[in-house]
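Quick one: structure tokens for this chain, please?
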Amino acid sequence: MFNFDAKFWKTIIPLLIKPGEVSKNYIAGKRQRYTNPFRFYLTVSIIFFLILGLSKNLDKFKELKNGSRKQESSLLTINNNIKNKKDINIDSLKNVVNKELKDSWLLIDSLKRKEIVEKVAEEAKDSTKSSSANNINLDGLKVGKFVNYQKKHPKVKIDDALDSLKEKKTFFNRFLYNRAKAINSFIDKKESQEQFVNQLLSYGSIALFVFLPLFTLFLKLFYIRRKYTYVDHLIFVFHTQTVFFMLLSIYFLLDIFGLKPQIWIFTILFLLYLFIAMRQFYKQGYFKTFIKFSFLNIFYFIISSIGISILLLISFALF
């Protein structure tokens, strides 16, 4: 246990403050000094996903807590007013409730009221746009017809719905109608949205194990004249990706403690780290490193976009 702790600190400190050095030393044969790159990456990635889950649950808890306090306060006020009334009837009860709601609105200053109104208007506008976009995307498609029908008839069974829509009872049609139910559930229920995001994250952590070796292959082609094996490049990729997860973990930890960090700062920090690591590890000039750094990031963006699209489709198919 003590040996692991010693290796951990001997790995994490130089990994953060001396980009590229740990990878270079590890490949040079100084492996006893450092934690295994794959194991270290796996540990840090697990910690990151745990912090991410904690952040999401904490936000939900705060939302519930604040909502509960507001509701409790309003109910107590209304309840007290009701207790003070004698021989109350339904009409007077309505008046009490309406008065409390009106008074609560008046307590908000005019500037805040304006902000609330603008926000509601903006959300309504966005909702309209989103709805229009969905109609455009779904027009003429079978899934669009299924979504509309299922929304109007949520309790109808799949086979009965297909009969009503005059569609064949094939496996594909049943699957599409089932996905239409998932779409409506996702749109209408916040719980479904959260469930989908959690599922996406769980698949994403697995997909990285396919994505990183693929990216390493492209990296080897970029540095084909360098005397590094594929495994050497993979060690470098694991180390840089570990730092990426570390920075993201710090970002979400700061967010948990309410410090409101800016994501662009962490993005720039990682890009600077990656550039320095590439120059130190591959020992090329600033200009060559910058060109390869730029192309690698473009390629990374392209394959990650494709990967995310595939991941979304798989997650939606299994949702």
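Residues 110-139 form one domain.
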